[in-house]
Amino acid sequence: MPGQASFDITPEKEASKLQFLRRQFFGAPPAVSRRDVDLKGKTAIVTGASGGIGLECSRQLLSLGLSRLILAVRNETKGEIARKALTNATDLEPSQSIEVWKLDYASYESIMAFVQRVEGLSPRVDVAILNAGINRSSFNLNPKTGHEEDLQTNYLSTMLLVLLLLRVFERATHTTNPSQLSPGRIVVVSSDTAAWAKFHEKTKEPLLPAFDDKGAKWDGFNRYATTKLLGQLFITELAKRVPPALAVVNCASPGLCYGSDLGRELGLGAAVFIRVFGRSSSVGARTLVHAATQLDDSYHGQYVEDCKLRPSVRDINSR
Questions:
Q1: What is the Cα–Cα distance from 169 to 246, expressed in whole angstroms?
Q2: Which molecular function terms from Gene Ontology are attached (predicted)?
Q3: Which residue ranges make up each domain of the chain?
Q4: How are beta strands 184-189 and 279-280 bridged, if at all?
Q5: Is 150 within 8 Å of 224 (Cβ atoms)?
Q6: Which tens digits make up the pLDDT trace of 129-181?
Q7: Bond preceding residue 123 cis, omega within 30 of 0
């Protein structure tokens, strides 16, 4: 296990609104270049890749020489449009390829089918950036699982995919010469809003049904923040049980970005706020690509913003 992380900022300051604004306007992370890392021969998955941050992560990975890119999308038509846009805008090398694979977080069957395809990759997938997420303006239950949709997509389905990908990495160690394998990389896209979550449900037993209560007052911002909080807590505990030699797993925040579909349901006011205070998707994607390609095992189970180690909700709540 990596040692105890140390930070150049207190958890309280990290969670402040002023610090959020400072990051948004003055915290642009540096871009990763091919001088920093060469991904030739590597395979990467990006979920939610048909637009916004996911599409930009895909473009940046290709610029690093990535050999095989899998665009994991719910809507395959949009995925094909994204694939063509990447192909037309990027000077692809002969060894580079882009594929569109179906992945619907609303369906456990779709997630299982997707991972079965991943298991067939040779020698294996190397990098996964799990970017797909939603922020509903109203309460909705997933008709297939019975869970509230923000919770389903941002937490339950995302963490299921993390666990299944770890199983893929583990199986690869039995079929491939270990000397030929470097640790896998899984980046779960998180948010600094996790530090602001009220998490009223934490006192409920059992916990999950409390999120699915139709009669509870709906607060879309708080629900989104709470799902990101749960994700950080899950990855923290997961890192205690999964060695970084198998896969380095962490949470990374791109910051508030415009050009993303995440806030598409939140109305005009939210759209204006995002455009005024947001950063571009290309800037936001830098932290995710950096986390997927540059961070060593000391970042296993940690939270990253602007390419720097930052206190997570675990650190904030422990004070």
A1: 7
A2: oxidoreductase activity
A3: 11-317
A4: unpaired
A5: yes
A6: 999 999 998 999 999 999 999 999 999 999 999 999 999 999 988 876 666 67
A7: yes
Q: 228 catalytic, yes or no? A: yes
Q: What is the CATH number of domain 11-317?
A: 3.40.50.720
**How many other C-beta atoms lie within 10 A of the C-beta of residue 8?**
8
User: Which ranges of the chain does DSSP label H, i.e. alpha helix?
Assistant: 11-14, 17-26, 52-63, 76-89, 108-119, 149-151, 158-175, 208-211, 220-239, 268-277, 281-293, 313-317
224 assigned to active site: yes
Question: Among 228, 281, 299, 312, which one carries the catalytic annotation?
Answer: 228
From CA 238, how far away is CA 49, in angstroms rounded? 25
- The model carries a pTM of 0.94
Write down the catalytic residue from 190, 253, 260, 312: 190
Residues 6+ apart with CB under 8 A from 275: 258
The residue annotated as part of the active site, out of 105, 155, 224, 299, is: 224
Give the whole-angstrom CA distance, residue 250 versus residue 264.
27
